[in-house]
Give the backbone structure.
Amino acid sequence: MTAQEKGPIGRPRGFDADEALQQAMLVFWEHGYEGASLSQLEAAMGITRTSMYAAFGNKEQLFRKALERYDAGPAAYGDRAMEKPTAREVAAAFLAGAVMATTRPGGPAGCLGVQGALATGDAGRAAHDALVAWREDGGARLRHRIQRAVDEGDLPADADAGRLARYIMTVSFGIAVQAAGGVSRAELQEVAETALSDWPPGRDVYADTP
Amino acid sequence: MTAQEKGPIGRPRGFDADEALQQAMLVFWEHGYEGASLSQLEAAMGITRTSMYAAFGNKEQLFRKALERYDAGPAAYGDRAMEKPTAREVAAAFLAGAVMATTRPGGPAGCLGVQGALATGDAGRAAHDALVAWREDGGARLRHRIQRAVDEGDLPADADAGRLARYIMTVSFGIAVQAAGGVSRAELQEVAETALSDWPPGRDVYADTP
DNA sequence: CGAGTAGGGTACCGTTCGGTACTCAAAGGT
DNA sequence: ACCTTTGAGTACCGAACGGTACCCTACTCG
């Protein structure tokens, strides 16, 4: 039997859900979860409130979908960086990607995963927790990649992957804050270079044995 | 003529304005400018809405006063760090102070100057701008201190004070984001040490001449 | 053609937002 | 005593919030 292409029953959607989600992501990126109002969102998405609720559930679920899209789009530099052959190149690509993503001329400054819900009222606690988990996941992925570098001999055997990953993540988040404050791409590229001028950093620091 | 101590005319204030401001600062610190509602603030301050308006003007001015208090209190580690004799000690004390302030067991996690208004709706733009200015001021103070170190010969003559200051500030802001996400004090102390394991960082990087 | 199903739009829900008259209470000046 | 000045509390404002009931429209299926 041939699988017949069948359209869904009922009235077809009158808008592009992907494009609407993209616009919602940009609003959340710029204004944060609580700072983005439903009125702003429906205006940017080009649909009415009820269409948004039917398609995405509610504001919180829309935010989670927007975060997924952010992770797969503007934040995809992270996964691309993991594919570099050496830990140094991974770290360099990660920081360079963070700089590029947070200072994109056309888009909002900063990082949705940082400024989306860093501090919130009671209504934004779920979004806050979602972003904490997102950041922790990014840190874990980087830690695993660095651990692989240790196992492969790319980094010294006594290197602390957790510590190095946390350092890179911290610099990335700092870059996001700086970008949100209007610091230029060129200045942040300098910061990224400075952060990696010594790699792996401080062997004498994290190795306690003399 | 002897200056006679005269009490102010009118009914005396029935609450401690300093203590009320302290409590307001803690609420802003934890929830951010927009995330902190007037109801929350008046509950924490122990006064009614009208008393707060009479004493501090409005929510935005209360936030600015709270930021001043934050700068003079929990964020005073910055100025203390500037007094260290060498640039390395300044940077180390600055980062260590940031770690301590953002992970204080009794208080909110993170930094008011970062999470208070990183991304906001239209109503929070003034608070956002105030925090951008606050962060820029902190960076400028650090830059001047580092430039002094260059002038005194503590750092190489070709060291870029702006670049070094921006790097330290970036790591500090990253520490604040990590702290807001629940990363522990010990882990962030490791991050601070890692960030300074090479100081001054990358002479070969910011000196373009071979 | 109905019948069934699902998206779209209007108009509204109750709540909370930041902010403010208005009134009363407590002090000093004369 | 009386007036002025200032703080404190109640009760409220219009606006915006996130969310939804209701009705209409557009499509597939029989």
